Amino acid sequence: MLGKPEWFTRRKWGGWGLCPATKEGWVYLAVFVAVIFATQFMFTDEKSRMLALGVVAAVLILDTVDIMFRMKKDERETLHEALAERNALWVIITVLAVGIGYQTAVSIAQTGTATIDPVIIIAIVAGLIAKAATNYYLDKKD
């Protein structure tokens, strides 16, 4: 789309996404930040500002995903990324499970009934479905 994969490297130490590796990558990032700020001054009403911000954010997200899919990775980088993603997922699942236990204990202590935020349950079930679908696809592919 707009950016080129050679302008960026995979973000290894601070989350997911891309990190500028060349001056073009930094210019790309600066232009998007400038456009985001500009949308806040170009429009007078809140609805137009939010719509413009949403459009710019959507373009940035789609372009970032496009760049990430076009980035070339060797086998070692792919393995390292897979291990890092797996470990991150285990931590997320552990925190969600502890959160369910905490919410249940607090709600029982306060009201005598167990109430749990359904978003946490949905997140865990969605992760389970994604894993099952991926395993099914990979088994059928081989």
Structure description:
The chain folds into 2 domains: about 5-70, no CATH class; about 75-140. The chain has 4 helices and 2 strands; from the N terminus they run ββαααα. It has helices at about 25-40, 45-70, 75-110, 120-140; strands spanning about 10, 20. Strands 1-2 form a two-stranded antiparallel sheet. The longest helix has about 35 residues, at about 75-110. The radius of gyration is 21 Å and the shape is flat.
Please outline the helices and strands.
Elements: E1 8-10, E2 18-20, H1 23-42, H2 46-70, H3 75-111, H4 118-141
Antiparallel strand pairs: 1-2
Largest sheet: 2 strands, antiparallel
Number of DSSP helical runs: 4
Count of DSSP strands:
2
Spell the H/E element sequence: EEHHHH
| Protein structure class | mainly alpha
- Span between termini: 32 Å
The side-by-side strand order for the widest beta sheet comes to: 1-2
* Spans of at least 5 consecutive residues with low confidence: none
If you compute it from the alpha carbons, what radius of gyration comes out, rounded to the nearest whole angstrom? Answer: 21 Å
Tell me the domain tally: 2
Features:
142 residues, mainly alpha, 75% helix, flat
Care to give the gist of this entry?
By secondary structure, the chain is mainly alpha-helical. Helices cover 75% and strands 4% of the residues. It has 4 helices and 2 strands.
